[in-house]
């Protein structure tokens, strides 16, 4: 009986606590701010995209907004694609960031939030999450404030 109750309790905790996942692949060298073209996010809600623009500018980059097919004259390109969902409120469920230099992928980050209806941990500050990911993706640049930064 105790074993059954423990199993049910653990299953309930897992259902309620579904954690977000993220991965960051950063370069082994420091990035120097400069000109960067940022590809428009194709999502319907531009919170993540606008946070990337804001964060890159605060890190010292000069940002040029371009369409997906307009990067020919750009030596540095940053891409932000995100998905927002609605469950009680809007939340950013997926973020995919990529940073390219001279056509080579230099850095990449992915964030995925749980999509079960019970979990409230998915309701994050999108701007703070973007700033944390930018800090990890672009070593050597100014650190942006984020409540998700490693302490």
What does it look like?
This protein is α/β, with parallel strands linked by helices and 151 residues long. The protein is 26% helix and 32% strand. The protein contains three helices and six strands; from the N terminus they run αββαββββα. Strand 5 and strand 6 (104-112) form a beta hairpin. It is globular and about 45 Å long. The termini are far apart.
Q: Based on the structure, what is the oligomeric state of the protein chains? A: single chain
Structural class: alpha/beta
- Judging from the principal axes of the Cα atoms, what is the shape? globular
- Range of helix content: 25-40%
Poorly predicted parts: 4-16
- Average pLDDT across residues? 82
Task: Identify the strand order in the major beta sheet.
Answer: 1-6-5-4-2-3
State the separation between the terminal residues, measured CA to CA.
43 Å
Strand tally is: 6
Count the DSSP helices. 3
Q: Largest sheet, if any?
A: 6 strands, mixed
Question: What is the percentage of strand-forming residues?
Answer: 25-35%
**What is the alpha-carbon Rg in Å?**
18 Å
Order of helices and strands: HEEHEEEEH
Topology:
Blueprint: H1 2-17, E1 21-25, E2 35-39, H2 47-58, E3 62-66, E4 76-87, E5 89-101, E6 104-112, H3 126-137
Parallel strand pairs: 2-3, 2-4
Antiparallel strand pairs: 1-6, 4-5, 5-6
Helix pairs in contact: 2-3
């Amino acid at each position: 009986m105790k074993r059954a109750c423990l199993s049910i309790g653990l299953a309930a905790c897992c259902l309620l606590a579904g954690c977000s996942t993220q991965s960051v692949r950063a370069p082994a060298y420091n990035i120097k701010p400069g000109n960067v073209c940022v590809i428009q996010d194709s999502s319907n809600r531009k919170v993540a995209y606008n946070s990337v623009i804001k964060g890159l500018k605060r890190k010292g980059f000069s940002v040029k907004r371009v369409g997906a097919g307009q990067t020919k004259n750009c030596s540095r390109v940053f891409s932000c694609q995100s998905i927002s969902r609605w469950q009680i409120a809007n939340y950013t469920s997926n973020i995919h960031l990529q940073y390219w230099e001279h056509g080579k992928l230099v850095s990449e980050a992915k964030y995925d939030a749980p999509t079960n209806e019970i979990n409230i941990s998915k309701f994050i500050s999108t701007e703070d999450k973007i700033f944390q990911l930018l800090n990890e993706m672009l070593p050597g640049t100014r650190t942006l404030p984020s409540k998700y930064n490693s302490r």
